[in-house]
Amino acid sequence: MKKVVIIGSGLGGLTCGVILAKNGYDVTILEQATQLGGCLQCFTRHGVRFETGMHFIGSADKDQTLERFARYLGTSERVRLSRLDPKGYDVVSLQGQQFRFANGKEAFIEEMAASFPMERENLYRYFSLVEQVANASSLHSLRHAENDQALNTEFQLRSINEVLDEVIGDPLLRQVLVGNLPLYAAEKDKTPFSTHAFIMDFYNQSAFRIIGGSDSMAKALAESLKEEGGRVITRQRVTEIVCDEMKAVGVKTATDDYYPADIVISDTHPARTLEMVTSPLLRPAYRHRITSLRNTIGGFSVYLHFKPEAVPYMNYNFYGYSQSSPWNCEHYDEQSWPKGYLYMHFCHQENPRFAESGVILSYMHYDEVMRWEGTKVGHRGDDYEQFKQQKAERLLDAVERDFPGLRGKIAHVYTSTPLTYRDYTGTEQGSMYGIAKDITMGPAARVHHRTKIPNLLLTGQNVNSHGVLGVMVGTVVTCSELIGSETIFNQIKACNE
Question: Across residues 454-473, what is the average pLDDT?
């Protein structure tokens, strides 16, 4: 059995571990934190739970992409789901109007056409294009060797706004259709339409919250890994990927433990991976290219603990904007922040009547917290706490405009900044989604799963694409290097017959 050491127990690392363990590899996952899961982690305050990174999933109905993948990974029976409102799983508030994203092509078009009756034909064109682009990828459709490479390439090189300007006539409708762009931190003229299409298709098929929190997915994957003979070891921070003259031979940890390996897979940010490698096998030009890649913006989170039975459970996600467009919310100053926010509730039980907790998310540049860079969580000082409190008040002011009286229903408020996210996930400067997809840089903006060290591979949100589905299907790319994509696709197919 070949030994595989995986650095990091995020969604990518755990999924890679299960796939490889299923195929006869001896898998060990090393996690620096006490809790596994990366962005799947949850935390508890005053007996109430909160999610840190993954708040809802899509395509989880029977025979849809994520459900098929979950069945293969052995997690479908272990993770309980709560369906978001099929008539409006996402609600976008723009220019004083609210617009609902309904599940299903026909329902989505009908809902939008009610507000934009003259755009019905264009909505069909738009949605057909979304489906074509999503299905052009064999990864996102889980159909081996059914790529449409020409279509894939075209829409990886064209921006979201360019395509929408071409397909949709009404300027307001164009803005509405990108109302959920905080899910992937899209940027005007930069983010490819393919990223938008994958996200829209993923959630339009079906949308769910995970009952009890996203960490149940991490625990389910760890259980599947254990059943296949693999293991996750927490509180083991890898400090070095040890190499000989030709390849990686193992890893060392901060506790001076050494784990020999035939293959090393890193589920950390590529910049963190490079810091672990001193070998000349990674040349300066490669290091410079990876460390020079631009990352998506970070986020500021306000976690809300509600008073008992004070806030009815909100069975959808709410995107509120103070400006006329969801674009350019990342370009703000002290006076204009926040230009937009995403507000969601936590699903603590099946069919809850009232919410126990929720979260408000908005963009935040790392520059705003850089002065506290050398500090540790819980020990950043009074000025940092005051900074967070001021930001939380500003964000609550914005939400109160759409949800009057919310403040009076809150028992406790907790906050986090890009510094918090950086310290818990290792992502560069607390970036929400890692390395940015940027059409202006062409292929140079992409991170390949292979490195210049033949048996050192990468996985996670920086490879393939981010988001739950992007990360999970991206593990197929990484694992295919060892066992072949056809083998994996056939195994997924067999588990779902």
Answer: 87
Name the token pair of 130. Answer: 């979304």
Give SS3 for 341. strand
CA distance linking residue 32 with residue 38, whole number of Å: 10
Residues 6 or more apart in contact with residue 225 via CB below 8 angstroms: 14, 17, 18, 21, 27, 29, 231, 232
**DSSP reduced 3-state for 464:** coil
Please report where in the chains the tokens 């072949």 appear, as a residue.
484
Locate all alpha helices (DSSP H) within 228-283, ordered by sequence: 270-275
Is 211 within 8 Å of 346 (Cβ atoms)? no
Other residues' Cβ atoms within 10 Å of the Cβ of residue 89: 24
pLDDT in tens, 15-74: 999 999 999 999 999 999 999 988 899 999 999 999 988 889 999 999 999 999 999 999
How many other C-beta atoms can be found within 10 angstroms of the C-beta atom of residue 170?
15
| Residue 138: C-alpha distances to residues 135, 185, 397, 471 (Å) | 7, 24, 44, 14
Structure tokens at 214: 């996203």
Mean pLDDT of the chain: 92
Cis peptide leading into residue 338 (ω within 30°):
yes
Mean pLDDT within 457-478:
87
Strand, helix or coil for residue 293: coil
Distance separating alpha carbons of residues 447 and 62, to the nearest angstrom:
32
pLDDT tens digits for range 92-103: 999 889 999 999
Tell me the CB-side half-sphere exposure of residue 483, using CA atoms within 13 A: 20
pLDDT score at 54 = 85
Please give the distance of CA 444 from its chain centroid, rounded to a whole number. Answer: 22
Indicate yes or no: pTM above 0.85: yes
Structure tokens at 421: 């996210």
21 closest CA partner among 182, 299, 226: 226
Kindly state the tokens that stand for 428.
């560069």
168, 174 Cβ separation under 8 angstroms: yes
